[in-house]
Amino acid sequence: MNLESLREATRKQMPDKRWKHTLGVVETAIKLAKRFDGDPVKSELAALLHDYSKAWAIDRMEAIIREQRLSMDLLVYDKELWHAHVGAWAVQDEHGITDEEVLDAIRYHTSGRENMTKLDKIVCLADYIEPGRDYPGVSKIRELAKHSVEEALIAAFDSTIEVLIERGKRIFPLTVLARNDLIGQLK
Ligand code: DGI
Ligand code: FE
Ligand code: FE
Ligand code: FE
What we know:
By secondary structure, the protein is mainly alpha-helical. It has one domain (3-185): Orthogonal Bundle (Hypothetical protein af1432), CATH 1.10.3210. It has helices at 3-11, 16-35, 40-49, 58-67, 82-95, 100-107, 118-129, 138-144, 149-166, 173-185. The longest helix is centred in the first third of the chain and has 20 residues, at 16-35. The site of one fe (iii) ion has 5 residues, from α7.
C-alpha cells in the first residue's frame, strides 16, 4: 500500500469539494501533530482516509452496518455518523489498512469517544478547523487549537451539540462521553 495510490483511490470516492476538504484535513492534521507531539505519519494517513465513505449512498452504508455488524445502535442516530464507522471498515476491506490506531481515528472522527487517543483528537479537530471550514464559532475553535487540543475539541463538540439540540435531533452517546471526558482532562 503506497500513499500515492491510496490518495488516488480516496479521491475517486468523493466529489471535488469533499476531496478539497480532505486535503485541508490532511494539512491541518500534520500541523496539529507537530504542535502537540503527535505522530505526523499516522495523522496524515488517518486524515486522508477519514471521509472515505462520506459520499457513499445511504443504502450502501446501512447494508454494511448490518452485514458487518458495526455498532447497530448507529442506525437510530443521525446518518451523518455512519460514514465514519463504514469508512474504517472500508479502508481495511479495500486497502488492507490494519493499524488499529488509524482505524479508530477514522471510526470516531465524527462522534469522538471516551478516552480519545491523541490521534483521535488530532483528526477530529483537524476536521473541524481545516482552512475550508466556515461555520459560526470556527474562528474561536481555531484560536483555542493554538494552545489546547482538548479546549478546542470541547468547543467544537459544544457547537455540534447546540446544532443538534436546535434541530431536535438525538445526540449520539459517545459525543456526550467524549465531551465529559475532555472536560475532566482540563486542568
Ligand atoms: O464528514 P464531515 O462533514 O467532514 O464532518 P463530520 O464527520 O464531523 O460530520 C459532522 C456531522 O455529523 C455534523 O453535521 C453533525 C453530525 N452529527 C449528527 N449527530 C451527531 C453528529 N456529530 C456528533 N459529533 N455527534 C452526534 O451525535
Ligand atoms: Fe466525516
Ligand atoms: Fe468531526
Ligand atoms: Fe471531514
